[in-house]
Amino acid sequence: MGRIAGMECICCYLLGRKQQSKTDVHHVRVGHGGAQRAGDFCTVPLCHDDCHQGKNGVHGDQTYLRILKVTQIDLLNATLERLYG
Fold first, then answer.
1. Facing residues of 25 across strands?
2. 61-73 core/surface letters (b: 16 or more CB in 10 A; e: else)
3. pLDDT in tens, 20-36
4. Is the separation of the CB atoms in 80 and 42 below 8 Å?
5. What is the mean pLDDT of the segment spanning 43-66?
6. How many structural domains are present in the chain?
7. Euclidean distance between CA atoms 30 and 6, whole angstroms
8. ∠ CA(15), CA(3), CA(75), 5° rounding?
9. How far is CA 19 from CA 50, 63, 65, 67, in A?
10. Which residues span the domain enclosing 39?
11. Are strands 23-27 and 43-47 parallel, antiparallel or unpaired?
12. Reduced to 3 DSSP states, what percent helix, strand and coil does the chain have, rounded to the nearest 5?
């Protein structure tokens, strides 16, 4: 997770804008119950104040995911491509 924490926000990157706050490591959630989360391998970097915890972020109304037409799995794929591609 250290490498993920050192990356810029993948959502900001895909939106073509500069990250404005610290990077959080977000555990991708797809098909999990409310209290469950994916393992540490399935994580993406998201800026804390906007794309992660912000009103339009993944823990908000997910507007940015709709603008990008992506799911959290797509963010994971983009993260892995930046790491290893």
1. 45
2. eeebbeeeebebe
3. 999 999 999 876 555 56
4. no
5. 97
6. 1
7. 24
8. 35
9. 9, 17, 16, 17
10. 2-84
11. antiparallel
12. 40, 10, 50
- For residue 62, give every residue at least 6 positions away whose Cβ sits within 8 Å of its Cβ, in sequence order, or none: 56
Where is 77: in which H helix or E strand? helix 72-84
- pTM for this entry: 0.89
Tens-digit pLDDT profile for residues 10-21: 999 999 999 999
Percent of the chain, pLDDT > 90? 82
Nearest Cα to 4, choosing from 43, 53, 49, 36?
43
Task: State the pLDDT at residue 40.
Answer: 80
The amino acid occupying position 81 is E
From residue 48, how far is each of 38, 42, 45, 57 by CA, in Å? 19, 18, 9, 9
